[in-house]
């Protein structure tokens, strides 16, 4: 706190300086004087603010008092007029009572007027004069001028003294006060004068805002005492009158009750004499407003056809006969000429009113005119009025019902359908951590289902690791189901439990909580069971993640998250501004099919507040590019809406500038804390839909392989890993960019009647991939086609760790999800060099038949670390290695490859080329489950000795290591080993 000087010290120091300037020490106290003035000024500013608020409150109090007095004046005037009415009617007793109460109110009003007059003079006036008079202006300004004049003169003299000393070869650092006392006397006296003037002004203000204001409050308090004493005196004076009036009023009331009783008795006698039907006394019934309009007789229904007379609008006002129809909430009125279209009135916007004067007429009031109708008789008129009222009521109920269905049930039904589909996804029938059946808890940011015991441990880990909600207890929104719809327990565990030592190390439903907790902490926090698959080279790593966002590959991002990679690093190739993150990129390329990518990065990347070189956050990008669905996901994660870019603009400012009203509304809701965190998003859900073709021509346009039958044998099932539901397929097994909804549609073309048997025979430890469609067996002979091996577009990411044995790829089925959506981008690369390896698909088994489509392929490299048998096979043919839904190996497509390649095995020898004497050795590409006794069951990787050929698509052979296992097998499920 700076040194200050008191008023008494200032007075004594100034007197000393006046008596002896050369010996005075006043100059050393001038700094304290200035500090004191600054401190006093700050205190006065605070007092000025408080006094202004006090004045404003007193002014409002006085204004409300004026309103009270005006209302009391009106009340007194009404009492006096009411008293006059009784006086004119001769009832002097009641007139005198009302006059007495008017005078009582008048006396109270006088007391109230004096009270508020005191408030105005004692408090409001003193505050107003203090603020507008004493506090007005800057009375510190003269003091500041005197201080500056003194300082400038002192600096000038000191400079002259130093120069004079320098001429004589001396150095002076400071000048004593006594040396310049006489030269600075004028400026010092002016400083003392202005300081004295300022202290006098402050003293006056202190007196007025302290003692004087308190004295005024005392005066007003005395006025309040007088007010209450006067009110008490007036009340006491009227107390005796009230006590005398009360029994008189009781006698008056009993007298009136007796008169009423006599009148009611007389009324009943008169009714009986006139033989009138007893009706409800409308005078005794309180009048109520009814919001319901005219109700019709329900027995007449809601439809009617007939003729009515309508009054014309012309000058003659004649009644014209017209055919009228009431149906479906509309009244149709025909014209006299058939070439003119009839008038159709919507009864929801009309009102029907019976005519009080003529019982055969009724009016129909529409939005622009009134129609007057005349029926043949009164009964016919009542029927028409009832039918019109009933039809209007029915249309109103239908409209309300449709609105409720659209607004209320649609989102709940959609959410329920999505949850049901999530429950039937592979692995979701049991807890992701302990395999307890029927899990009912969802981790929103990981997209997995867990049981109630494991959910408690997930909550203990914190929401930065897992955000838990109940599928049954919580009212979930569609935005909270994005990741669960696209990941699922099986695919999640393929990554997070890829290096699990054994199934016994995983807890079960009967395991203790300590064992569960240790396993869950190791799995989710330490990521102990994750196998690194993405190269650690920074450039390659970032390039892979960029491609994953662009290609909507959630599992590459999940693998990166599992390997604890930093998902908030700037991308290598920015789209608009340097230092863009993956979340910026996801917002830019996002649409209704990629919201799950945005949601994953929003919840797990920590990029909400990351800014580009121009200061734009992902929320700014949403406003710039009109992405309201992405805004919902960011706001649900509590993104900061107050961050500004280098132009000083928030996301809301940009939305307003770009006129993106939907984005602006969402941001305004967040700004006012009204945003619904359980927001619904527009996403391509398509729950429970199957691929329905409208015609055979459209069916032929679908680029899906054909299923051939062997005789009329039942179709074999592809060996799916685990007990996966047929309506859920592996997104990675399809072309990049396809959503799960599109994938299961196209695979629905392949009917799978033996799903349960195949699921039971599939062994979970060996991750088998579905083979191509089974060809016809013993079908009519036709020109030989090469086996229908579908093209796959995949090159493989480099991996750091040795990979396990990789089997050939699944089907890559091209499918158009909706009629307006282009096919997924999986190009078929035709080139002159590939003509020798171009094959045709067999015709579809449809009545018209589709023309054969040719497929081309390019060889691709095998990844490092593949099995020895696959390396041997690669010498003769290149096999693409794209994983399927249960694979935990080599999932990540390389971003370094400039274009993808489609690989198809070389054509197998024609039937004429197969000599039974020369046995060929082939290796199984896929698992195959026999459907008949003469067919061969084998696993992927087994060696088969070919003994003969049944037709162009089926061979006979035996297992090399188990000769007793033999039978027919499809050629498309194997490839020939080199001699």
TrEMBL record:
Segments forming domain SH3: 917-979
ANK repeat locations: 614-646
CDD domains with a match to the protein in the record: ArfGap_ASAP (cd08834), PH_ASAP (cd13251), SH3_ASAP (cd11821)
Family matches, as PROSITE patterns: ANK_REP_REGION, ANK_REPEAT, ARFGAP, PH_DOMAIN, SH3
Gene name of the record: LOC103060704
Coiled coil regions in record: 147-174
Annotated GO CC locations: cytoplasm; membrane
A UniProt-annotated Pfam family: ArfGap
Name recorded for this polypeptide: Arf-GAP with SH3 domain, ANK repeat and PH domain-containing protein 2-like
InterPro entries: AH/BAR_dom_sf, Ankyrin_rpt, Ankyrin_rpt-contain_sf, ARFGAP/RecO, ArfGAP_dom, ArfGAP_dom_sf, ASAP, ASAP1-like_SH3
Compositional bias (Polar residues): 820-831, 882-899
Keywords: ANK repeat, Coiled coil, Cytoplasm, GTPase activation, Membrane, Metal-binding, Repeat, SH3 domain, Zinc, Zinc-finger
Region: Disordered, residue numbers: 722-741, 760-916
SUPFAM superfamilies associated with the record: Ankyrin repeat, ArfGap/RecO-like zinc finger, BAR/IMD domain-like, PH domain-like, SH3-domain
Species name: Python bivittatus (Burmese python)
Subcellular location: Cytoplasm; Membrane
């Amino acid at each position: 706190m700076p040194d200050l000087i008191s008023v008494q010290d200032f007075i004594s120091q100034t007197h000393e300086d006046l008596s002896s300037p050369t010996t005075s020490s006043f100059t050393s106290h001038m700094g304290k004087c200035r500090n004191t003035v600054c401190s006093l000024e700050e205190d006065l500013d605070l007092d000025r603010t408080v006094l202004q608020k006090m004045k404003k409150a007193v002014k409002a109090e006085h204004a409300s008092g004026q309103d009270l007095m005006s209302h009391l004046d009106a009340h007194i005037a009404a009492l006096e007029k009411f008293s006059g009415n009784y006086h004119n009617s001769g009832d002097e007793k009641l007139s005198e009572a009302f006059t007495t109460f008017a005078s009582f109110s008048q006396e109270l009003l006088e007391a109230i007027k004096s009270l508020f007059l005191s408030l105005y003079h004692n408090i409001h006036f003193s505050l107003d004069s203090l603020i507008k008079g004493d506090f007005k202006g800057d009375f510190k300004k003269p003091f500041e001028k005197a201080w500056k004049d003194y300082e400038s003169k002192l600096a000038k003299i000191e400079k002259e003294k130093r120069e004079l000393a320098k001429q004589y070869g001396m150095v002076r650092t400071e000048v004593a006060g006594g040396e310049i006392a006489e030269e600075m006397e004028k400026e010092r006296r002016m400083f003392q004068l202005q300081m004295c003037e300022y202290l006098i002004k402050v003293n006056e203000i202190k007196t007025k805002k302290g003692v004087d204001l308190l004295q005024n409050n005392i005066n007003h308090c005395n006025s309040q005492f007088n007010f209450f004493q006067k009110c008490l005196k007036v009340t006491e004076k009227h107390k005796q009158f009230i006590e005398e009036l009360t029994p008189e009023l009781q006698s008056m009331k009993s007298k009136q009750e007796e008169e009423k009783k006599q009148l009611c008795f007389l009324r009943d006698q008169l009714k009986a004499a006139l033989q009138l039907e007893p009706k409800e006394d409308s005078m005794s019934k309180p009048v109520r407003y009814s919001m319901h309009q005219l109700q019709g007789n329900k027995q007449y229904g809601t439809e009617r056809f007939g003729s009515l007379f309508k009054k014309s609008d012309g000058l003659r006002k004649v009644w014209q006969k017209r055919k009228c129809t009431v149906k479906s909430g509309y009244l149709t009125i025909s014209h006299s000429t058939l070439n003119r279209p009839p008038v159709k009135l919507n009864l929801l916007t009309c009102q029907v009113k019976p005519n009080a004067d003529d019982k055969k007429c009724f009016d129909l009031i529409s939005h622009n005119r009134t129609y007057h109708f005349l029926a043949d008789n009164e009964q016919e008129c009542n029927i028409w009025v009832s039918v019109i009222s009933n039809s209007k009521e029915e249309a109103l109920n239908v409209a309300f019902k449709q609105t409720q269905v659209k607004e209320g049930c649609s989102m709940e039904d959609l959410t329920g359908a999505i949850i049901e589909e999530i429950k039937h996804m592979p692995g979701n029938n049991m807890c992701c951590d302990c395999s307890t059946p029927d899990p009912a808890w969802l981790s929103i940011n990981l997209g997995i289902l867990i049981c109630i015991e494991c959910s408690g441990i997930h909550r203990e880990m914190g929401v930065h690791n897992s955000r838990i909600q109940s599928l049954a207890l919580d009212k979930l929104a569609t935005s909270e189901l994005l990741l669960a719809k696209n990941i699922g327990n099986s695919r999640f565990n393929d990554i997070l439990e890829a290096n699990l030592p054994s199934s016994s190390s995983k807890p079960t439903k009967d395991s203790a909580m300590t064992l569960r907790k240790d396993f869950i902490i190791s799995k989710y926090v330490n990521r102990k069971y994750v196998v690194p698959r993405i190269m650690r080279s920074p450039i390659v790593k970032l390039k892979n993640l960029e491609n994953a966002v662009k290609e909507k590959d959630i599992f590459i991002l999940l693998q990166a998250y599992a390997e604890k990679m930093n998902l908030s690093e700037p991308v290598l190739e920015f789209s608009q501004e340097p230092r863009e993150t993956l979340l910026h990129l996801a917002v830019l390329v996002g649409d209704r099919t990629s919201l799950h990518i945005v949601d994953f990065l929003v919840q797990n990347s920590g990029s909400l507040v990351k800014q580009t070189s121009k200061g734009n956050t992902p929320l700014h990008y949403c406003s710039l590019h009109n992405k309201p669905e992405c805004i919902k996901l960011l706001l649900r994660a509590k993104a900061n809406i107050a961050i500004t870019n280098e132009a000083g603009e928030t996301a809301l400012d940009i939305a307003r500038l770009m006129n993106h009203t939907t984005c602006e509304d969402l941001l305004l809701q967040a700004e006012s804390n009204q945003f619904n965190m359980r927001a619904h998003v527009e996403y391509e859900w398509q729950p429970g839909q199957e691929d329905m073709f409208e015609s055979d021509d459209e069916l032929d346009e679908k680029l899906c392989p054909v299923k051939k039958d062997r005789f009329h044998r039942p179709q074999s099932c592809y060996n799916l890993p685990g007990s996966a539901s047929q309506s859920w397929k592996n997104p990675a097994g399809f072309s990049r960019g396809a959503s799960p909804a599109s994938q299961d549609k196209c695979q629905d073309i392949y009917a799978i009647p033996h799903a349960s048997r195949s699921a039971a025979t599939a062994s979970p430890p060996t991750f088998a991939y579905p083979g191509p469609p089974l060809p016809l067996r013993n079908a009519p002979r036709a020109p030989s086609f090469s086996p229908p091996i579908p093209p796959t577009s995949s090159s493989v990411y480099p991996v750091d760790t040795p990979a396990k044995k990789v089997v050939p790829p699944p089907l890559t089925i091209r499918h158009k999800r909706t009629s307006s959506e282009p096919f997924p981008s999986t190009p078929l690369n035709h080139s002159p060099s590939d003509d020798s390896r171009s094959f045709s698909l067999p015709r579809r088994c449809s009545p018209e038949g589709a023309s054969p489509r040719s497929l081309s392929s390019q060889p691709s490299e095998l990844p490092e670390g593949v099995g020895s048998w696959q390396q041997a096979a690669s010498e003769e043919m290149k096999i693409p290695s794209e994983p399927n839904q249960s694979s935990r190996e080599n999932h990540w497509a390389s971003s370094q490859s400039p274009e993808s390649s489609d690989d198809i095995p070389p054509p197998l020898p024609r039937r004429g080329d197969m000599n039974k004497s020369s046995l060929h050795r082939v290796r199984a590409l896929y698992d195959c489950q026999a459907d008949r006794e003469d067919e061969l069951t084998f696993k992927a990787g087994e060696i088969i000795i070919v003994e003969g050929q049944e037709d162009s698509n089926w061979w006979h052979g035996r297992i090399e290591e188990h000769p007793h296992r033999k039978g027919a097998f499809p050629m498309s499920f194997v490839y020939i080993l080199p001699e």
